Amino acid sequence: MNTTKKTAKHLLSVSILSIAGLFAGCAGDGSSGGGNKISLGKFIGGKYGDQIDAGTNLATAFAYVPDEDELGRTVVIAATNRWPLFDRPALTRYVTMVGLTLADSTTRPDGNWIFGILDTPEIGAYSGPNGYIMVTRGALAAMQDESELAAVLAHEMSHVIDGDGAKAVKDAKLVSAGTEAMSAADRRLAAFNQMSDHLVDKVLKSGWNQSQETNADENAVKLLIASGYDPMGLPRFLKRMLASTGGRAKPFGTHPGTADRINRTTSQIGSGPTGATNKDRFVKATAEARL
Known about the structure:
Layout: H1 3-9, H2 11-17, E1 31-32, E2 35-36, H3 40-44, H4 49-53, H5 58-61, H6 68-82, H7 89-103, E3 114-118, E4 125-128, E5 132-136, H8 137-142, H9 146-161, H10 164-171, H11 184-206, H12 210-227, H13 233-244, H14 258-269, H15 279-288
Parallel strand pairs: 3-5
Antiparallel strand pairs: 1-2, 4-5
């Protein structure tokens, strides 16, 4: 499927992620700011979307063993409870276009790739299972061209493809999910809460382990090359972050150190192929969004 068709296919998802405050609990249909509100239930969809819009507690709606998509949506909800979404639909569409261009060269070209922008000056990017990718406004403001944006997205997409989120849940050491006196549904709810809390903490706070970050960087470089982007966009962005923070930068990942990541990715790229930076297009898109 070409990128144009994929972009059209994902327009509903893009519009959902481009509405600031979506996950603050709005429900039902209506109009605001010239557009229709999209309810949390519509975003969640599946078996429990109608129940959420009818007033069912979100946790109760998830009271069964979760699949990857449920875990991914939980990460999105947690992130957007912490930071609002950046209400710039055109910029969200642009980020999505870059992400779907990368997706064409992955093993999951027709996967559930959803992209959003978090409205915070902090520099970061996050991913949830089943293709939920979020980049911060601060990260976009710190970039200089499209290859750097592609590098950050490719890194997060690699975490998804490697199944790092699902592995984190499987590796979680859960305490007892209840007593025999609890119903089966309540025990499933308790287990889900523990699993999702562990995953959210891993994604938004503690970060992935060194092996996972190393693999994500390595696969991001490969994905950039396969997609026709300049692979130096990754170490170039990391170098700028390191310089701007006096050697303390930890963008979109906590392990290993940024200097090590720069050295390793630069060595991996070597004198290999160069690619597109699309600087003019990036500058235009970010300027129109008034970053």
